[in-house]
Amino acid sequence: MKQYYVVENAQAPVGAESIVLSEKDKSLGKFGKYLNLLVDIDVAENKRLLNQCSNGVIKNIHVSGSSLSVDQGAIKFIDGRPYNFHGDMKLNVLEHSVFAVVRLMPKSTTTPYTLITSTEAVANGAPLTEVAPNFSVNSDGLTIGVNRRGGINQLTSQSTLGVSLKESILNKKVLLSLTFSVMDGYKCYLNGKLIGKTTGNMNPLSLDTGEGEWQICRAFIGDLYANLVIDRDMSKSEADLNDLHQYFLKRYEIV
Length: 255
Hints:
Helix content is 8%, strand content 35%. By secondary structure, it is mainly beta. The strands form three sheets. Strands 1, 6, 7, 9, 14, 15, 16 and 18 form an eight-stranded antiparallel beta sheet that branches. Strands 5-8-17-10-11-12-13 form a seven-stranded antiparallel beta sheet, with no helix packed on it. A three-stranded antiparallel beta sheet has the order 2-3-4, with no helix packed on it. Strand 6 (69-71) and strand 7 form a beta hairpin. The protein is globular.
């Protein structure tokens, strides 16, 4: 993926080499310095998933089963074969955003599907002196949100943000996105539409935010089309956030 910076009202010298930008380049490349992690089917081979922001192989800490499979335009996560992948860059503890295009499939356990989470978890009932990354969907596909205890904790009434849906999103291709900043808290979106938010200031993340400490797709079963992490609260710019939502909705034909 090409990253670039647009200089307004500038003119290239005669004979300058032109740059051909793909739709992905146009939509994502302009956020270059904020891009943390991007996984999608364009760069996936056997057990290797490549972070297209750093051009490095994502750290694979656990694979049960033969290998990842890529089929019908998605990376397949099969029930009974758990995969965990660590982010290879530090997570911005003050603000970040997560975008994921997924089709969640029913599974044999009640653990939530995590789109991003911490390796460790703050024990239930313990005071939240430390807070961890977490963006997940409960196993029934009826609740989306954030549990600042991290790990693979279910979303409950005690969670920081839990959005109840009228219909389960299991077996459906959807775009899930989350924005966060210490000033504006969390905002959660389904297929580009705001469905829930917190209000007031939030403490910065403090647990499992370093390189190799946070994870994507833990306890995940189903199809992963894309997972993007940006070290910026994208809700600060309605235009930029809309551009990202429209890119994923259009590219993955989500209606």
